[in-house]
Amino acid sequence: MYTVTKSLNNNIVMARAEDGRECVLTGSGIGFRKSPGAPVLEQQIEHIYYGLDKLQEKWLYLLGQCSPVALAVSRSILQEAERRGKLHLTPVALIIISNHLTCAMERTREHAPVSSMLQEAVMLVYPDEYQLSKKSFSLLYRKYGILIPESEAVILALCIVDAASNGCPGHLTAAQKAAEDILELVRHNCNVRDDAETLEFTAYVKLRCWLVSLGKTHHSILEIPDEMLDILYSKIVGSRDCITAVANYLADGFQYTMQQEDILNFLLRLNRIV
Fold it and tell me: Bridge-partner residues for 23, per DSSP?
């Protein structure tokens, strides 16, 4: 027997079990017109989450922001993964995949798709996860008429890898943390806007950190004139300090030296969001 303490949306509620433990329940329609104190029918419960820590509370918040369509598709995708038997996803996969699908739909509505810079690398290293992410977009279109650019499949594939319990590689976790740290350095040094273009910049940083952590970076043989970099530095207040901080972070954490090409790409993208 579970009693609702807070309804987050139609499909998610915070609840209290008979033994007094706090938990989160998910299920189709489980939170519809549920007020605190209302009982939850056992047959409505699909997943139960106990013992939330600070990180899980963050996941819970994200889950509450997910669209019902994204949640429905995510459930179908998790069932597909279980049927295939190749991927063993943790319960938090529902949150990760739902959140990305929600963001992907928002970016599509705002005409701000993510560029597919690492598509070939992801297809090669994580073929099962990539195919599953493409399946989710196909399902979105077939059932709901929502068309998502295929470039979004790259990030969703990495989200699925992140949610897997079958030996999720440590470099992905390291890349995620590095991206968050670098974005914090950017915000500290530059006056960054929060809009649709910032979403693409964020995706670029995350994917670039993933590539660095894999040790699969490469550079063109073109020489970038210092004058070109100086022009960009002069246009973006705080950018020189920002690049120095990012370069030091990558050198200390990954023994990676930013090349002129890295700096140019970073500045060009940064220039669009400040």
Answer: 15, 50
Q: What is the amino acid identity at position 101?
A: L
Q: What letters, b where the CB count within 10 A reaches 16 and e where it falls short, cover 53-86?
A: eeebeebbebbbebbebbbbbbbebbeebeeeee
Domain-embedded: residue 62: no
Token pair of 150, please? 């295929």
Token couple for 71:
């949640």
Which pLDDT tens digit goes with each residue over 216-225? 666 655 567 7
CATH of the domain at 233: 1.10.1790.10
Token look-up 């139609």 returns 10
Tokens representing 143? 């059932």
Confidence of residue 166 (pLDDT cuts 50, 70, 90): very low
In a domain, 112, yes or no: yes
- What strands, in cross-sheet order, belong to the sheet with 47-50? 39-40, 2-9, 12-17, 22-26, 47-50
Asked whether the beta carbons of 213 and 254 are under 8 A apart, the reply is yes
Residues 125 and 155 in one domain: yes
pLDDT of 207-244, one tens digit each? 778 778 767 666 655 567 788 888 889 989 999 999 99
pTM, two decimal places: 0.51
In a domain, 63, yes or no: no
Q: How many residues are listed for the chain in this entry?
A: 274
Asked if 107 and 196 count as a contact pair (C-beta separation under 8 A), the reply is: yes
Which 3 state secondary structure label does DSSP give 168? Answer: coil
Q: Any idea what the Cα angle at residue 248 is, between residues 243 and 254, rounded to 5°?
A: 120
Q: Which residues are 12's β-sheet partners?
A: 9, 26
pLDDT digits (tens, 9 = 90+) for 255-273: 999 988 888 888 888 888 8
User: For residue 273, with 0-12 CB atoms within 10 Å meaning exposed, 13-18 middle and 19 or more buried, which class applies?
Assistant: buried
**Average pLDDT of the chain, as a whole number:** 79
